[in-house]
Amino acid sequence: MIVVMKQGATDAQIDHVIERIEQLGLRSHVSRGQFRTIIGAIGDKQPAHQQILEALAGVERVVPIMKPFKLASREFHAENSVVEVAGVRFGGPEISIIAGPCAVENAEMMERIGRAVAAGGAVMLRGGAFKPRTSPYDFQGLGEDGLKLLRAAGDRLGLPVVSEVLAAADVELVGRYVDMFQVGARNMQNFQLLKEIGQAGKPVLLKRGFAATIREYLMSAEYVLSRGNHNVVLCERGIKSFETEVRFTLDVSAVPVIKEYSHLPVLVDPSHAAGRRQLVPALALAGIAAGADGIIVEVHDRPEEALCDGPQALLPEDFRQLVDRIGRLAAALGRGLSRPSSQQPE
Amino acid sequence: MIVVMKQGATDAQIDHVIERIEQLGLRSHVSRGQFRTIIGAIGDKQPAHQQILEALAGVERVVPIMKPFKLASREFHAENSVVEVAGVRFGGPEISIIAGPCAVENAEMMERIGRAVAAGGAVMLRGGAFKPRTSPYDFQGLGEDGLKLLRAAGDRLGLPVVSEVLAAADVELVGRYVDMFQVGARNMQNFQLLKEIGQAGKPVLLKRGFAATIREYLMSAEYVLSRGNHNVVLCERGIKSFETEVRFTLDVSAVPVIKEYSHLPVLVDPSHAAGRRQLVPALALAGIAAGADGIIVEVHDRPEEALCDGPQALLPEDFRQLVDRIGRLAAALGRGLSRPSSQQPE
Amino acid sequence: MIVVMKQGATDAQIDHVIERIEQLGLRSHVSRGQFRTIIGAIGDKQPAHQQILEALAGVERVVPIMKPFKLASREFHAENSVVEVAGVRFGGPEISIIAGPCAVENAEMMERIGRAVAAGGAVMLRGGAFKPRTSPYDFQGLGEDGLKLLRAAGDRLGLPVVSEVLAAADVELVGRYVDMFQVGARNMQNFQLLKEIGQAGKPVLLKRGFAATIREYLMSAEYVLSRGNHNVVLCERGIKSFETEVRFTLDVSAVPVIKEYSHLPVLVDPSHAAGRRQLVPALALAGIAAGADGIIVEVHDRPEEALCDGPQALLPEDFRQLVDRIGRLAAALGRGLSRPSSQQPE
Amino acid sequence: MIVVMKQGATDAQIDHVIERIEQLGLRSHVSRGQFRTIIGAIGDKQPAHQQILEALAGVERVVPIMKPFKLASREFHAENSVVEVAGVRFGGPEISIIAGPCAVENAEMMERIGRAVAAGGAVMLRGGAFKPRTSPYDFQGLGEDGLKLLRAAGDRLGLPVVSEVLAAADVELVGRYVDMFQVGARNMQNFQLLKEIGQAGKPVLLKRGFAATIREYLMSAEYVLSRGNHNVVLCERGIKSFETEVRFTLDVSAVPVIKEYSHLPVLVDPSHAAGRRQLVPALALAGIAAGADGIIVEVHDRPEEALCDGPQALLPEDFRQLVDRIGRLAAALGRGLSRPSSQQPE
């Protein structure tokens, strides 16, 4: 850390900062400029130290030098991590596509849409059973029944399944049915949930909060990693901005920034960013071109009957075409499409 | 709702929209302009209807007319609601001030700071026992032990206490110790937590998410209200913006907008918005001038030893002066300061 | 427009709104719901009408139905417009690449860098002579001398040139030297400049303001189009967001949204969005994958000596590789790279 | 400046950075930590140096220590500056109120509204003659005729006048009529205009751009100050955010931050932030409570006939009441209302 003293800070204030730095077990290093004194604090390990020094009299600000995440950083792990979920790989050279409906509605639709996305090129099946909805009057998901239907569809099709978990108390339950947990944007800083998943021993798809900086996002990944779960896949899904033409602004620059700072795989979710199906293919292709390792995308064959997010669901035929275009784009960039795993239906 | 058809929408598409509107139990009302056909859907009650209609072919967009919240709205309840918490009132003519440290650290500091804020004019004591921290390596709070210390300090000083609850599973535990739950910004859309608090029968201080629109915020209040808990106090605490001089941008306009749309009391939290104690008094005064019913503010007598958010904590003497200024400002606006309740120490 | 009356609006207020609508030369169409009356105003042409109706007593809000831009809209011109600049085409099937230094510094560097970008695949040369700089103490550009050097380099290499114009009063001067004007993000709502360029008879590269919605952006294009200049090329270059890892957040979704609403060509500028050269290739590729018609990118062979924006300039070799990757990506998407025009050096 | 080297930066890279720092006329100061080397560059005066060092190989980032503005800073001028405009003072203990219509429409309305705001407590008259409008089809102002009407109304009422200037080329013309220039939010980074006003020898009301950080804003003030014009009054008028209930989000925290960093007076403009008259009083009071030196507010007696921004104009009676409340609030905070100057009608 670098402690920047205020112009006119007294010698006593400077001495007190130095003393406090040393109490924290750090070395200090003073540099007096014409207008300001700057004090390096060397050896810092704890984010809390920044606030302690900022609270001291005479201090203008404290500039952290080290990034606050460790296990998530490329400095800790230089090579790309590859996360494997029941035979599907994320973070290797292949592009992996997760698809399915927003919510599990019933057995018949899971079967029908699952079949369509498998045929179209998906290697993992998604479907929400616990739905975080802005309105208390909206469909909240089928709960455990939904998980059973998702699992059954995945098994019949030979696709691993991913579904969202909303609370620490549900991790055990959800974990009984899914191959991969999803933590949604609204829960990116639900730290109790992150800790629980850190101990759950199953991979997690951790979506970026729609108002989280990339640093805050990687700190959330750090919660999971620091509890021993190294199978974290990240996912950019759009941030809040002043633009109202889209539901969220897909921050495509997050992909190369995360790749620079971290070894973890990154997907993009074009559906929640776009909010309208017409925009989904362009955003999906942009994400892949920016370096993402795959996409997670919503598909529904009868959007006007969907209990959730019908306007942003791709039709099965649109999905098939999109996968085809992603395949060509991936090839142009020296990558390929992930193929369905050899896992057989039970 | 108003369904705006695309320019060039076909008669069949228009007929299908009308049919679907009527299937939803609504009346339709068609208006054909020179360029576009517009279809009113009258009688809409469910937010889900908007997505169903948006998903139809030929539809450009759907404009909701009714606000999505009901119980939180002034149309439902025209007068200001007054929420009473162990004798302290929010939403009446008086300005109520909640103060205390960011986190409960130990018995001695709770006692010391509690005494200082009581002397300075606070009518409720705050202190975090479960802390949501961006970094897994930061102090996470004392948990139940912290709640006990907070309760003890409140009891000795005759002040009701408020503390944050992070998960639905903790509501029962936290409810044993506090007079008022706090739901923090990161949990504003933790819908399971909101549902649980809706059934817990104790007042809640529900903070605005830092990326939530006012509509989304009032929908979260609706979750609590719709489960039968009408004692909801709102709190603006800053939103994310591009400005980096403050931790969050206090959206002072949220106060009059919420007062226009809703009957619920509104506080402001100048501490988390500012991030630096120098800015706290100006933001507190601005919030009250904009019409807030009180503030919740962090105070610490030894900020450099604070385990959490030391730089934004007011010193006790600064707090006393701020309360004094709030009192004069409130009087100028025809309001007064809330006085400590008659509740006696046990 | 749809006028939504407040709940409880009086008959007199409703009648007054109807009267006012008819005074404006529009037809009115009343729909009384259970809670609110809604009045359609049919035939509206002028944006000003919205504010007039919003100002009336009893009106809650006015929802515009028609988009505010006309000449820029796909409804006015269904096919993609192709803008040709001295033989270089924007908006057709080919991807066109503009490159060059941030600022013209001297004859020798323009020559050197110009030669490098021409060899690397650029079909137009950029270079700033009038530089909008945040600080008054920074290099402000060479002015007319810079334009002469740019023109000379372009002529020798057979590349048309584009450069920024900062003020209406400079349009004539800059127009003497360039093939295409550039209007920068900070001037997107410099309406006097837009009007002047609307009459100047030369193509314009109009960048999006970093806080402009897509609608506001297309309204700025409308200023130019409505004065008779139809050769407008748009350019997404990043917007302000809360994220601090990049200089601006590239809003890649703007590309498909603009393509949906407008017939005008769209480029992306990855350099100003990224702010760091490492991120430029990913953003350039993302923009093309999202459907952009080309890029404008900064290149410098000695970034540490650059008088402006050295950290975001690609090295010539990086540029060459990027063009190669764009070419492969374009081919995968059924497009090709624009080849240098047949225009010969003078 | 502090140059943070990448982890793994080579000795040659470090040496090259030191060499470059010294070539720039600065002293270097090296500190080697366990993971990173940090190099202080002492004596930096020019913002450009940051980019030069950032462009060097092995550099992770450069952290500026000094604020980039000088003449605008409190370090340059510790006391509050008081700007006097024809007898009206900004920045002293008194609160000064500027009011008038959005646009000058005709002689009769200027007279009528001018009289109303003078009676209500305004000490300066505003009115736009050159209007920056998002749509080319909206009313663009009366130009010089408007300035004449504004001047005539001000003279008759004994009030100085302020009006917006849109372009460097108009400074001389506008300066013939007004006592104070206004530079609008859209022109905050129109650097040619700022330079011209820096030489014009008349005070300027410089509004904050709606996407400008406070640092960028103070740099724009620096453009004016550095040309010799020290009569700069700042004005917070709302920034872009994701919230759609208001036209712009009034960043009330900008007031204390600017007061901390700069000696210049600061107003708030509640009208453009709110966009709706109901919200204007709350925002005006919040701004004053946060420490602003006054407000500029739009007033119209027939909003539904206004050619511009009718929905946000206060009615004269609302204005009178607001001034009364500001007076009481100012008194509570130890300030008073500015009284009309002794300047007599001609």
Q: Can you give a write-up of this model?
A:
Chain A has 346 residues and is α/β, with parallel strands linked by helices. Chain A is built from eleven helices and 15 strands. Chain A has helices at residues 11-23, 48-54, 107-120, 144-157, 171-175, 191-198, 214-226, 254-261, 270-274, 280-289, 316-332, and strands at 2-5, 27-32, 37-42, 59-63, 83-85, 88-90, 94-100, 124-126, 161-164, 180-183, 204-207, 232-236, 266-268, 294-298, 336-337. In chain A, strands 7, 8, 9, 10, 11, 12, 13, 14 and 15 form a nine-stranded parallel beta sheet that branches. The first copy, chain A, has a four-stranded antiparallel beta sheet with strand order 2-3-1-4, covered by helices on one side. In chain A, helix 4 links the parallel strand 8 (124-126) and strand 9. The longest helix of chain A is centred in the C-terminal third of the chain and has 17 residues, at 316-332. Chain A starts with a strand and ends in a 9-residue tail after the last strand.
